[in-house]
Design goal:
The chain is mainly α and 258 residues long. Helices cover 55% and strands 5% of the residues. The chain is globular.
């Protein structure tokens, strides 16, 4: 995985880790507000949203605003991180002893300080304004477990590939058909992939679970070398227009019951 792909994946991972405590604290705050709610008929600061049937839903707007708020915070915080924290991964810590020590559990004091001191001041201000921090000085206490969860997840070793079996084909999504495993990096290319630096050894046995039709199709549209070099994840395969068109078509093919 290239640096840009790792950073994009890690940003989504960090946002997920950050959303947990924010959603929790928001839910607790709303519960407290509900207990203190004024008598019926009094105006509140939350505007009601009407659905197509004209039914008012006070929670819909709250949920959308909260999602936007999490997106904003995740972008502000993640972009302020040092580059090695943005791109930290299992592969990175395997090949860099300094980074492995810095990214341990618990995170080193130096790593925490470097990450937390660079966060823009509006982040703490926003969290305090939304009632998610009592004081802006509480930001390190709030973010330290989030950072630890993020780094632990980003640097966790890959699963045993046999345990990744899915219930549906990862291309056409048919869930009623037998599956076989497709070596995303074909075995015939393993030696070349290592020699040319395309992949590290720990990634070589990664698989995707495909139906026989999709498995055969993948090997028709790309050579083993192309699969190993350019299409070594399901996401990369699904980035091809011909694979997407195939998946859409074959997904409608169903056998008649006897």
């Amino acid at each position: 995985m290239c640096a840009d792909e790792t950073q994009t994946s890690n940003h989504a991972l960090f946002r997920d880790c950050l959303s947990g405590p924010i959603v929790h604290r928001s839910a607790v705050g709303q519960a407290k507000s509900a207990r203190k709610r004024k008598p019926k008929g009094r105006k509140t600061s939350i505007k009601l949203v009407k659905d197509e049937a004209g039914v008012e839903d006070p929670g819909e707007r709250d949920a959308e605003e909260l999602a936007d708020f999490v997106d904003y915070l995740a972008a502000e915080i993640f972009d302020s991180f040092p580059k090695d924290l943005q791109s930290v991964s299992y592969s990175a810590v395997q090949n860099d002893a300094r980074l492995a020590k810095k990214s341990g559990d618990p995170l080193s004091p130096a790593a925490l300080e470097q990450a937390l001191t660079a966060i823009p001041p509006p982040v703490a201000e926003s969290l305090e304004t939304y009632g998610l921090l009592e004081e802006q000085s509480d930001l390190p206490k709030f973010l330290t477990p989030v950072l630890q969860e993020y780094v632990n997840a980003a640097t966790s070793p890959p699963p045993l590939w046999s345990s990744t079996r899915t219930s549906a084909c990862e291309i056409c999504e048919r869930d009623w058909i037998p599956l076989s495993y497709h070596h995303l990096i074909p075995k015939q290319i393993h030696a070349k992939a290592i020699k040319r630096g395309w992949h590290e050894e720990w990634r070589l046995n990664s698989v995707a679970w495909l139906c026989r039709a999709c498995h055969s199709f993948v090997h028709r549209v790309a050579s083993n070398e192309e699969l190993a070099k350019d299409y070594w994840t399901v996401e990369r395969l699904m980035g091809r227009e011909d694979v997407v068109a195939w998946a859409k078509w074959v997904g409608r093919v169903r056998w008649k019951a006897r």
